[in-house]
Amino acid sequence: MKKLWLDLGNTRLKYWIVDNDTIIAHDAKEHLKAPNELLLGLLGTLASFEPEFVGISSVLGDKINTAINKTLQGFNVPFEFAKVNANHPLLTSHYDPNQLGVDRWLQMLGVVDRTKKQCVVGCGTALTIDLIEHGTHLGGYILPNVYMQRHALYAGTQQIAVKAGRFDSTELGRTTFDAVNHGVLFGVVGAVRAVRADYPDFEITLTGGGADMINVQFGGELDIETELLLAGLRRYFA
């Protein structure tokens, strides 16, 4: 049975087409704040695979989700939006389910193993850090990512006019340009280091578009699963 797993994030639309759990097509595109328009443009391509079900994760709010719902009704394929289930057989949570984003929850669901202690670090528009102990979500942290931090400095100060540059070092900066770019990366990496130090027996898994950038600062020794959310959708609708 062919299925379409669709992830509507803050900046990108991602999808997997699977046939009996084998991924036969995938893509990720920036939606430039117009996800429904992008989806409309992709419908012909997606329809060519003849999926029989569509599972969706969306963090885009009720107004956009209503438009997505209307678009998918014209697709003539059964579809369903995933919702947080704090009592899922694989993953329970101490978190208020009304406060837990479906993206964070699906990322955890995509990797959870009830025999392990785990830490899932989502490296997307926000940096999310979530701790799971034997299938129970203990809680976590949400931080702005490096781009949001740099923009806050640029927008909120008169003298720090840094809005570009690579995030590739946490060494001491010797110019304002380097101090900003190295500093915001230092903060994000420092958060992961702190969790690693406080919870040394938890296995860390990075996911999301910024995972490689962070893992470089750990010598590449952390595990990366680039599409945990889509893997979580597959488990959710299993």
Automatic annotation (TrEMBL):
Catalytic machinery residues: 103 (proton acceptor)
Q: The organism sits in which domain of life?
A: Bacteria
What UniProt keywords are attached to this protein's entry? Answer: ATP-binding, Coenzyme A biosynthesis, Cytoplasm, Kinase, Nucleotide-binding, Potassium, Transferase
Q: How is the cofactor bound?
A: A monovalent cation. Ammonium or potassium.
Function description: Catalyzes the phosphorylation of pantothenate (Pan), the first step in CoA biosynthesis.
Assembly notes = Homodimer.
Q: What is this protein called?
A: Type III pantothenate kinase
What species is given as this protein's source? Moraxella lacunata
